[in-house]
TrEMBL record:
The gene is ALOXE3. Belongs to the lipoxygenase family. Gene3D superfamilies: 3.10.450.60, Lipoxygenase-1, Domain 5, PLAT/LH2 domain. PANTHER family: LIPOXYGENASE. Residues 2-119 form the PLAT domain. It comes from Leptonychotes weddellii. PROSITE patterns: LIPOXYGENASE_1, LIPOXYGENASE_2, LIPOXYGENASE_3, PLAT. The lineage of its organism: Eukaryota, Metazoa, Chordata, Craniata, Vertebrata. Pathway: Lipid metabolism; hydroperoxy eicosatetraenoic acid biosynthesis. This is Hydroperoxide isomerase ALOXE3 isoform X1. Residues 119-601, 602-654 form the Lipoxygenase domain. One of its GO terms (biological process) is lipid oxidation.
Amino acid sequence: MAVYRVCVTTGPYLRAGTLDNISVTLVGTCGESPKQLLDRLGRDFAPGSVQKYKVRCSAELGEVLLLRLHKERYAFFPKDSWYCSCVCVTAPDGTHSHFPCYQWIEGYCTLELRPGAAKTICQDSLPLLLDHRKRELQGRQECYRWKVYAPGFPGMIDVSSFEEMETDKKFALTKMLPRADPGDSSGNRYLPGFTMKIDFPSLMHMEPNIRYSATKTASLLFNAIPASLGMKLRGLLDRKGSWKKLDDIRNIFWCHKTVISEYVMEHWCEDPFFGYQYLNGVNPVMLHCLSSLPSKLPITNDMVAPLLGPNTCLQTELERGNIFLADYWILAEAPVHCLNDRPQYVAAPLCLLWLNPQGALVPLAIQLSQTPGPDSPIFLPTDSYWDWLLAKTWVRNSEFLVHENNTHFLCTHLLCEAFAMATLRQLPLCHPIYKLLLPHTRYTLQVNTIARATLLNPEGLVDKVTSVGRQGLLYLMSTALAHFTYTDFCLPDSVRARGVLAIPNYHYRDDGLKIWAAIESFVSEIVGYYYPSDASVQQDSELQAWVGEIFAWAFLGRESSGFPRRLCAPGELVKFLTAIIFNCSAQHAAVNSGQRPLGTYPDEHFTEEAPRRSIAAFQNRLAQISREIRERNQGLELPYTYLDPPLIENSVSI
């Protein structure tokens, strides 16, 4: 008689426990145990509980390869959800096997878990384990299906597949929520008391393992509801007229004042702050250094000589690398929307900036269209105060459209959704890259589904408040993706290609490169542990399917993008993974805001000592970067905190 000791940990989350019967079967190289009901006196699987059991076998099983968890009906109680964190098995000889789970199990089903040691497909040779990988991915691909949202868009998750899944399906455990009213075929309805529509049906079905946790949901509601009600009560959401004075805008932010908002209120109309925002604002990726002026911006030296001063000229400053351009070409053909039956207007500006001898970046000239001529004058700082201020305001309006639609939503949210989808569909739980990327894709599918249901849907918020509306948004994102390259995606390559390595006080660049290097070092250690040679990368069919699916669905198979469709060496894999993790975490924080600390891995998916040491070293590197940033910020009039590691979320989750 061989006795195995089984320790089951239930997650500490709200409603994580279950009343269902839980049984276990151990599968080893020499046989499998009888199915053993895990039952002790009292409730076994309460939230946060750790329960120990014994499984008796007629003989030792050899190396334990799989653990089957069976979830079945108990008496007359209805089925419920159970969040199993992990199971630890101790063999008769004292050997410990750790089986990470960290997922919701719904309905009545059997879930098969492997030991925590990460394995590529090349490292598995037993037919049992190869079959397990295959069945797991087949189940995931059935659950997580691709959908085309609009032509030219990255692929997205098809949430309707969750509604179709049965609750007892393996590897696709889905909770069925109430259906929408069948009388409304579109499901796109007005939110009571508000002027925008919400696509309710798309929010009704969400696979539990990608759904927000109760804590995350409560946090979002706690922040969103008071802000929305406040804007509703102050008349902002229903406003149809123009702003009459700046005090009207200040009244909106009376209860959301920060150091940054107060600084902006005081300095928003000043040229140095206008230039500073290109470096350290929420869209710090627009500037390109010029060696010559483009023909579509016919600026002469005489135009800018009063600002440059007597000791230099425009050509000299171009040769010194001190002239930069922010080009909003993408807006030239963007559809224009109507709001409150009034046509809106969009500019496609060219904004020329100069790095002056004091190290400040200031605007030199602004042309509000892409076509020079009598109808498109060039505005200069020497013009009247209000003309120059109005020109800068139009640039900031264009900046908002490019930032929110492309830099923020397309290049972080939508691309990271495609990375999450490919990871779920092509990499099994035991794969080292799945374990690596899981924290950086958490909640992304949920937040993007919410965004499509509330912001991007017809007559949603984008249609109600922006000058381009939903059609303009679709145009901007599809056009931007068609021009997006691997160089744009990789921060070190991007700053080098844009010629902005030498600009002083570019805190986004400086902090971002430090975080990139920390991520790269961490990823390099993980990849080096599991992929010791070029052949180990090339022969990993799951890895190649993963990168191929990203190329096809995120970048639409466009060879000119420069994104890899196949990986041939560990170095290529390190760069690709570093870019994905950076853009899912730090880049999103830089263009949005932070909430979940980068480098936090609460679920122990890696059980080997080497990757655990790498995680600890990564966390130490991030802590050092944070100390350096905070020390630097003490000497800044306006601290730059967007890329302080404790303020960077692990994933695109808001």
